[in-house]
Amino acid sequence: MNNFNNIFSDIKEKLDRINQEREKLIKISREMIRNCSIAIKSIHRKEFNVYEEKIKEVKSQHEFLLELINKNPLAFARYLKTPEQEFVEAVCLNALISDLDFPTSKDIGVDDVNYLLGLADVIGELRRHVLDKLIQDDTEGLDKILDEMENIYTFLFSLDFPKAITHDLRRKTDIARSIIERTRGDISLSLQINRLHKNLEKK
Q: What structural domains and CATH numbers belong to the chain?
């Protein structure tokens, strides 16, 4: 019986340590997601100094998450999915809007599938960027943004793998298609209204 006590005591100690590390991981993960959200908002607001500040924090938090996850990947790997997607979304959105070289999953240092899932979400943020420009009556570069949305969609759609490998990528890709179509319609309608206003001003 004493042997049982030693066995269970050892297991309990290990589980206590895992649970403590899990709580740290969840806390850092939430902070990372929040910082990514702020970074994305700062891109839309053209506050790129805020973006750089937040992405610097995110990179540091990501490194810490990887350290914790590598201690127990089977138990902790799933906690990396959402923060990495948000990280990818922020960095790729900034690259597209700021006309920078488009980063790879290796450049960002994230899992390939999480990279794809984050990339799918970029399409929604590009729609938001388009709508902001339309509100400001700024139609410059809208075709280019729409092309970028289409390019991302085409690439993601070509990845025909089981859900067990790509998780909910197919669902996100289907949503992306409808986002692109709505965005195309909004741009078309806005351009038609602008042309109508110009014709009326000439009369």
A: 111-203 (1.20.58.2140)
